[in-house]
Amino acid sequence: MEIREVAVVGLGTMGAGIAEVFARAGIGVVAIEVDAAALGHGLGILEGSLAKAVSRGKLTDAQQAEIWGRIRPAASFSDAARVDLAIEVVPERMEIKRQIFGELDRVCSPEAILATNTSSLSVTAIAAASKHPGRVIGMHFFNPAPVMRLVEVVSTVLSGSALPGQVADLARRLGKTPVQVSDRAGFVANALLLPYLNHAVKLLEAGYASREDIDTAATDGIGLPMGPLALLDLIGLDTALSILQVLQAEFGGPRYTPAPLLRRLADAGRTGRKAGCGLYDYASGARDDGDKAGNEAASSSPSTVTLIGSGRAAEAEFASEVAAAGINVTRNPAHPSDLIVIVAGPDEQVLSAAIATGRPHEAVGLHMAAPGLAEVVSTYMTDPPYAAAAAALAERLGKKTVHTPDRPGFLVGALLYPHLGDAVRMVQDGYASVADVDTAMTLGCGYPQGPFQLLDKAGPAAVLDRLRGMQAGYGDPAFAPPPLLAEHAATGIGFTG
Q1: Cis peptide bond N-terminal to 178, omega within 30
Q2: Same domain, yes or no, for 16 and 143?
Q3: pLDDT computed for residue 297 by the predictor
Q4: Strand, helix or coil at 403?
């Protein structure tokens, strides 16, 4: 069917953005709100967005006027009687959404498509309450809707067979990239993103690493656009908690069980940027990143370093960098030196090598997690001044540093590999394709590379070994590698090739 006019119910930030997307695509929009004040506020959001686009040269004044001409404000559901599609963008509460769908059932044509923008609730449960469940579908936009290209098209067991394809075609008409999935909590993006964010909070709560190091490990070690803790503050800790509760209710298991710290902060009103504080403080208008930089600046890099390694190419390269920086290098742990550095591989334990030196309190591991990032690995025997000296050494060589305990995966791996395991499990369960998972995470969450692109870059066999090491080291079933990963590792075949 041809979509000529749509109704958008709810003109908060998200609803106003969705209305703008439809109007920009040449589709008439009936903008519905509960009362005149709410309607005026929503239209003000839309006006501000269009004015900004004009000021940046993205729209001309004439184009702005054309878009405004396609928007018809309304305070009554009866104005939606002739629309071809209606989409609700109201708060994530099932009783509100069912009430909205009841009103749409009453006024809309039986042929009209009814869509929900829910990010966490069951589309099936919403559809089941409709008089015409076969025409109900999820159409999940991402914020900000005018900018983000992904739309998750969510079908249910009640959806008409042609409906998902029709809505996917509509998303393409809007300039979006659709990903078609069946109704499962979190769909694709949130079902993968939230367990990863939750795990980061658990690492912080357990004292595994500082908040700044956790975020730096994600941005500089994995290459993600934002660290998980900063992203949680942006999303809202209360919003993240509610989504995790939905995921946990459907899937169970420790990956979806909200971290106690997340729950406590949300209960205390520290919900993130919108509250001025969350995992970070924003009271001054800028994020408080603590005094990590000042503490490490107080440590000077050593003049003589004992390097210990297993003869890998990375060790030789690091030794050359140290020598080029004018620092004396020795390979003999009995030789007097300021610091013993164990150049560690991603699958190696630092403690055994530290003990073998005879000077374990002075020994620190360094793992080159990425070209510009070094993980400073402390064992339980490492004296803190030596860890600080190792960080100063790495920074003298032009590398950022994060501190991590001597545990499987160190810090970057502790964040990344369980996340990749979740992605494989999603494909293994037949819920989404490899291409759809990578599309959802790149377009919906801003990843520069999708999870399967990251996995193939590391190699299925390496990811399998590291997940097995984490499962053995932590005894946590959440780190158990999926059978599909083991199959790819056995054959040597990647996921994206």
Answers
A1: no
A2: yes
A3: 45
A4: strand
Residues 242 and 102 in one domain: no
CB 431 within 8 A of CB 186: no
Determine whether 13 is exposed, middle or buried from the number of CB atoms within 10 Å of its CB (0-12, 13-18, 19+): middle
| pLDDT value at residue 294 | 45
Q: How far is CA 257 from CA 117, 198, 202, 253, in A?
A: 24, 8, 10, 7
Q: Which residues are catalytic?
A: 119, 140, 152, 190
Please tell me the predicted confidence (pLDDT) of residue 315.
82
Residue 265 shares a structural domain with residue 282: yes
β-bridge mates for residue 9, sequence order: 32, 88
Q: From CA 385, how far away is CA 90, in angstroms rounded?
A: 54
Read off the amino acid at residue 480. Answer: A
Looking at the fold, whether 177 and 44 belong to one and the same domain comes out as yes
Strand-strand pairing, 339-343 and 363-370:
parallel
Same domain, 123 and 29: yes
Distance, CA of 357 to CA of 361 (rounded, Å)? 10
Instruction: Single out the residue of 160, 197, 214, 85 nearest to residue 422, CA to CA.
Output: 197
What's the predicted TM-score (pTM) here? 0.89
Residue whose token pair is 């003298």: 396
The alpha carbon of 197 is separated from its chain's Cα centroid by a whole number of angstroms, namely 7
- Tell me: do 342 and 429 sit in the same domain: no
Question: At 309, which CATH number?
Answer: 3.40.50.720
160, β-bridge pairs:
none
Contacts within 8 Å (CB) and 24+ apart, 166-173:
166/1, 166/113, 167/113, 167/115, 167/137, 167/139, 170/3, 170/85, 171/139, 173/3, 173/25
Domain that holds residue 104: 5-182
pLDDT in the model for residue 23: 96
pLDDT at 229: 97
Domains contained in the chain, number: 4
| Amino acid letter, residue 296 | E
Check if the beta carbon of residue 101 is closer than 8 Å to that of residue 126: yes
Please say which residue of 405, 440, 464 terminates a domain.
405
Digit-coded pLDDT (tens) for 270-318: 999 989 999 999 987 677 776 554 444 457 889 999 999 877 777 888 8
Q: Is residue 347 part of a domain?
A: yes
- Helix, strand and coil content of the chain, in percent to the nearest 5, comes to 50, 15, 35
Q: Which neighbouring-strand residues pair with 263? A: none
Token code pair at residue 203:
């690492």
Residues of the chain with pLDDT under 70: 285, 290-298
